[in-house]
Amino acid sequence: MAERTWNVYLSGEIHTDWRERIAQGVERAGLPVRLDAPICVHEDSDDCGTAILGAEDKAFWHDRKGATMNAIRTRTLLGEADVVVVRFGDKYRQWNAAFDAGSAAALGKAVITLHGADLNHALKEVDAAALAVCETPEQVVRALAYVIRGELPGRKGSLAAE
Amino acid sequence: MAERTWNVYLSGEIHTDWRERIAQGVERAGLPVRLDAPICVHEDSDDCGTAILGAEDKAFWHDRKGATMNAIRTRTLLGEADVVVVRFGDKYRQWNAAFDAGSAAALGKAVITLHGADLNHALKEVDAAALAVCETPEQVVRALAYVIRGELPGRKGSLAAE
Amino acid sequence: MAERTWNVYLSGEIHTDWRERIAQGVERAGLPVRLDAPICVHEDSDDCGTAILGAEDKAFWHDRKGATMNAIRTRTLLGEADVVVVRFGDKYRQWNAAFDAGSAAALGKAVITLHGADLNHALKEVDAAALAVCETPEQVVRALAYVIRGELPGRKGSLAAE
Amino acid sequence: MAERTWNVYLSGEIHTDWRERIAQGVERAGLPVRLDAPICVHEDSDDCGTAILGAEDKAFWHDRKGATMNAIRTRTLLGEADVVVVRFGDKYRQWNAAFDAGSAAALGKAVITLHGADLNHALKEVDAAALAVCETPEQVVRALAYVIRGELPGRKGSLAAE
Amino acid sequence: MAERTWNVYLSGEIHTDWRERIAQGVERAGLPVRLDAPICVHEDSDDCGTAILGAEDKAFWHDRKGATMNAIRTRTLLGEADVVVVRFGDKYRQWNAAFDAGSAAALGKAVITLHGADLNHALKEVDAAALAVCETPEQVVRALAYVIRGELPGRKGSLAAE
Amino acid sequence: MAERTWNVYLSGEIHTDWRERIAQGVERAGLPVRLDAPICVHEDSDDCGTAILGAEDKAFWHDRKGATMNAIRTRTLLGEADVVVVRFGDKYRQWNAAFDAGSAAALGKAVITLHGADLNHALKEVDAAALAVCETPEQVVRALAYVIRGELPGRKGSLAAE
Amino acid sequence: MAERTWNVYLSGEIHTDWRERIAQGVERAGLPVRLDAPICVHEDSDDCGTAILGAEDKAFWHDRKGATMNAIRTRTLLGEADVVVVRFGDKYRQWNAAFDAGSAAALGKAVITLHGADLNHALKEVDAAALAVCETPEQVVRALAYVIRGELPGRKGSLAAE
Amino acid sequence: MAERTWNVYLSGEIHTDWRERIAQGVERAGLPVRLDAPICVHEDSDDCGTAILGAEDKAFWHDRKGATMNAIRTRTLLGEADVVVVRFGDKYRQWNAAFDAGSAAALGKAVITLHGADLNHALKEVDAAALAVCETPEQVVRALAYVIRGELPGRKGSLAAE
Fold this sequence. Notes:
The structure is a homooctamer. By secondary structure, chain A is of the alpha/beta class. Chain A has six helices and five strands. In chain A, strand 1, helix 1 and strand 2 form a beta-alpha-beta unit. In chain A, helix 2 packs across helix 3. The longest helix of chain A is centred in the middle third of the chain and has 21 residues. The interface between A and D is large, with 37 and 37 residues.
C-alpha cells in the first residue's frame, strides 16, 4: 500500500531561506510530504491583484486586490493541510502569519510555530495554540520525520507500528 | 510528487462562450485544473426532469423536476470545488448564478465573479463575497495561473516556493 | 412555559410594502415571531459604507464599502433565523436576494420564496431549494401561522400537540 | 418583543482607551450591545497562569500557563460574538490580535478592524477578511448604530424595517 | 439560578394518545421540559400545503406541498431539540418517523425510540442509533425524570450534584 | 485529466434485483460510478454481530449487535457518497431505509428515492427531501447518466461543458 | 445588561467532595456560573437503565442500558458547556472521564483537568488538550473567577474591561 | 474500478502484540485496509518532544512537549480514519486511549473497542459509544472482513452487492 502523503503548509516570513531548508531536509530524509506555501516573490504577491484585475489609485485598494487574490491560494492550500508551519522573523510585523495561525487553529489543523526564543513572550498566545514550537527549520524537519515515521535522532531506527 | 489538481466550478451564464475561453486558456497555460460546470445545453437542462421522470402538466412542476435533477450535479461538483467562478451576463436574471454564489460563500469556497463593469452596482453584494472580480475570462485564467503557480504576466518567471 | 419565539428574516425587494404586510399579518394573528430585515432605506443602504468610513472616488469601492457594512447585519441576523423569506419583484435583478437564498439554503435554514407566478421559470432553481413558494405576503403569514401554531384557514381551531 | 442584544468582542491593544471610547459611544447611543473583552490589566493577564496554578522557572512556561488561562475566556466569548472588533496599535506586534482575527474569520464571525492608515499595508491580509476597516473607535460605534438600527449620521432618522 | 429547560421533540405516530401521556407525566413530575411536536391533526397536516399555497391536480404535488410546509416546522424544532423521541405504532409504515430519527442521529441529538417489543426486529437499525428504547410513554417520562433530575423510581430522592 | 468517479450508495430493499439492474445499467452506459451498498445477504446481515462477537440469548441484543456491526459499513460508505439512492418495496417496513434517507439528507447528500407510485403518499416526507423520485432502476441510471455526463434519452449527444 | 452566565460541566470522579467544593467556592465568590454534572449517586447511575427500561440477565447489557441512559444527560449538558472540568482520582480507572475530555476537546470546549501531581505522567495526553491543569478544586474556582471577572488573588481588584 | 481502501486507526495499548495480530490477519485476508497507529516505541513516544525541541527540567513539561508532538500524528491520522479501534489492557490506566475514543466518537467515526471481559464494567461508557466490542484482535479482523467484504466465518462466500 502506498505511503500516505502529508500536506504541510508553510506560512509566514518570506525574506529568509527557511522554506528552502525545510524542503531540503524533507527531501534528504525522503519524507512523503507535499510542501505548500503562499507566493513568495514579494513584489508579485503585492501587485498580483492590480496586475491581473486592473490598477487602483489608492494604495488601500491596490493592497486589497492583492490580498484577496492571494487568499484564493491560502484558503485552498491551508484548508487541506494536515500541518501548518507558521514562521515569524524579526523584521516585519507579519500579522498575516498570525492570522493564518488563528485560522488554522480554528479549523483544527496541527500548528507548528517557528521563531527565535526572543519572540517567545510576544508570541505566547500563538505558541499556546501550537502543538510544537521550533527555533530552527531543522527542528521542523525532525518533528515531521518523527510524526510521520517515528524517526528520532540518536535512537535506533524506531518505526511506527504498521 | 504529482502536482495538485485544482477543482474549479464554472457557474452561471450558458449563452456565451466564456467557459470555452477559460478552458482554452487553462489548457494553453498547462494549468493543473479540473473544470466542472452545470449541464449547459439549455433545453436539456430545462427538460431533464420530465424527460427522465415523466411529464408534468404544469410548467411549475416541470421546472421543479428539472431544477432538482440539475441540483444533484451542482451540489456535488460545487461542493468539492476549490474555486467557484460565477458568471453574470446582460440578458437573463440568472438568479441561479447568484444562488450558487451564496451557497459557495456559505460553504467557505473561494468565489470569483465574472461580469462587465456595467453590472458592478447590481452585483455589489455578490462581489463583496468574492475574492476576485473579473471582467474577462482571460482574467480568470490569469488569476488561476497566479494562484496555482505564481505566474504573473509581464514578470520574470516567478515561482511558488516549493 | 413561555411560547417559543420564531426568528424570521425577510430578505429581498425593498421598494414595495411586502414587509409591512407580513408584519401587520403577524401582529394581527398574534404570532410569536421576531421579524428581521436588512436596512431598507435605499440611499442609506447604498451609502452607509462611505458615510461612516470615508468617501471613495470610484463607484466600485463606494459600493464595496456599503455592501460589506450591510453584510455585518445580514450575516448575523440571517445566521440566526429559523426561517428566511426571500422576496423577488419585477423591477430589479435582486441578485443579493438570490445570494441570500443560496446562503440560507447552504446553512440549512428553512427558505420561503415570495414572488409572482410570472417569475416561476426564472426562479426555478431558487424555488427548488425553498420549502414553500408564496405569491402574496398573506400566504407567508398563513404559512407561519400554520407552521408555528397549526392554524389553518377555514378549519376548526386546529392545534399543535403541546 | 424585546430588542435583540448584539454580542461584540473587543480584541487587541490594551494600552489605550479605545475600549472605553466604544463603551461610552454605545451607551450614549443606547445600543443593545454586550461588549466583551479579554482581561486588560496587563500584569494580571501575563501572570494569571502562575498566580493560580503555581510558579514556573522558565519564562516560556510562565507565559504558556497565562496564555492558555486567558484562552478559556477568549475561546468562549469570541466564540459567541456576533461581531469581533480587532484593534491594532503602533507599539506592539500584537500577534494575538491577528490570531484572534484569523480565528474569528474562520468561524464565520463579522470582523471589524480598527487601526491607523499607516498600518494599512502591513494589515492588508487581515483587513481583507474584515467587513469594515475603521480608523477611530467612533467609527466602530457608528458602524454598530447603523448595522443594528439603521442610524446613519446626517440622515433623517432612518429605521430598519421591523 | 433558573433551572435549565430541556427541549424534547416528539416525532412519529399521531393516532394514539402517547404525546398526551408524556405531557401529563412531565407535568405531574414538574419537569422543566418544553415538548414540541409536528402538527398532529391528520387532515391539516396532509392539506396544509394546498390550503395555503393553492390546489394541485395531482396527489403527488398535493402531498409535496404539504410535506415541505410541515418540514419548516420539523427542521426548526427538531433542530433545536436536546432529545428526540420517535414513536412507532402498528398501523402505518411511518417512514417519516424513521426519517426524523435518521436526521436526529446525524445531527448528534439524543434519540429515544418508543414502540412495542413486536417491532424490535424491524426497528433494529433505528434502535441501534437510540440512547434508550422504551415500550411505554411512562418509561419516556421516567427516563426524562432521571436524565434531568436524577430521580429514579423506588430509590430515595437521588439528586444530581449541583 | 481522468474523469471524476461518482460514489453512489444504494440503500434499502434487499429482496429484489434493483441493485443489479442499476449496476448493469451503469456498466452498459460506461458511467464512472462506484456503487456501494449494505451487505445484502439477509441472514448474514442479521447474524453478523453474534457470529463474530458471540451469541446472545435475547433476540433484542442479537439484533443490536448485528445492527451496529452493519452501521460501521453504512456510516463509512453513506458518509462519503455523492448520491444516496433509497429503495422502498412493498413487503417490509424498511425503517432502516427511511433512517438512511434522514441521515443522508441531514448530511447534505443528494438523495434519490426509488419506489412504486402506490407508496407516494406514505413516502411524501421522504420524497420531499429527495432531489429525484424514481419508479424504476432504469430511471436511476438515466438520472445518473444525465447528472454525470449530460446524456439525455432521445436527445442528440448533449455534453457537459468541460 | 445582565451578566453572562457561564456553563461549566463537572465530569469525572464521583467519590470525593470536589464538586461540592467547587460549588461552594463559586457561590462564595458570587460567580455567574451554572454547574452541571452527571448523576453522581453511584448505584443509580449504574442501575438507571434497567430500573427504567427493564432488567437484563447479562451484566454487559445491564451496563449498556445504564451507560446510554446517562449519555442522554452527558451529551446535552457537556454539549452546551463553555468549560468542561474533568476530575481524575486515585482509585478508579475513570475511562469515562477521559472519554468526556476527548469529546469536549473535539467539540472545541475549553477543558480544565483536575488531579494530583502523581497522575501527571499518566494523564499527559489529556492534560495536553486542556487549557488549565489544576490540583485542587479551589484552583478551579480561582481560574473561573479570573476567566469570568478578571479577579486574581493578591492583586488589587482587577476588572475585565467592560 | 479499484477497490476502496479503508483507513483504520489502532489506538491504545502499546505493550502487547495486538496491532501485529490485526496486521497479520488483515494481510492474510487480503483486505484493502491501511492501518495507522501512534508511534509505539514507548521511550521514543515519551521523549520525542524534548529530543527534538530541547530538554526540560520539569517532568511535567517534558511530558507536555512529547504529548503535543504525538498529537500532531494522532490528530491527522485519527481525523481521517474510517474506523478507530481502541485497545485497553490490564496494566495501565490508558487514559489517552479513552481520550482518543471520546474524540473519535465526537467526530462521528465508527469506533471498535478491544478488551477483555473483565474490563466490561469499567469501560461501559466507552463501549456504549462503540459500534462493536471485541475481545480478541481476530474478532477485529473478522469484523473488518465482514464490514468491508461481507465475509462471515462459516458461511458460504457471501458478497457485498457491488
